[in-house]
Amino acid sequence: MKMKFALILFLTIIMAGCQFKVGSFKRMDKEAPPGLTELGGTVFGENCVYGFPLTGDPNLQAATNEAILRGPEGTTGLKDAVVETRYILFINGLCYKVTGIPVKEK
Asked: Which residues, 6 or more positions from 75, have their beta carbon under 8 angstroms from its beta carbon?
């Protein structure tokens, strides 16, 4: 019984991975520049690397660009952006995820 419980616990930990927030652009900037128009709801972009061992780091710029491209036509940036990092133990992956509100300069 103990062995079965230990195996289930081990597999749960391995498959769950880890996730933590690495920063928030909102906290870094005091105010958004004047003249921005919000273009809709929240969008996100993600960039990951996988492998044994991990070769390199995920690209934060690529994740940000993907989020901007997912916004409506005319999106030039993100407001209230949040950056998260996710480590996936089972397949040995590391990801950056950028979430924010798409905006356009007037």
From this structure: 39, 43, 68, 69, 102, 103, 104
Residue 98 belongs to domain with CATH number? 3.30.110
Q: Which of 12, 20, 19, 21 is nearest to 88 (CA)?
A: 19
pLDDT (tens digit, 9 = 90+) per residue, 8-49?
A: 777 666 655 555 455 555 555 556 777 888 898 999 999 998
Q: Is the pTM of this model over 0.85?
A: no
Residue 11 forms part of a structural domain: no
In terms of residue numbers, what domain contains 46? 17-105
The total number of structural domains that make up the chain: 1
In the predicted model, what is the mean pLDDT of the chain? 80
Contact yes or no for 95/47 (Cβ under 8 A): yes
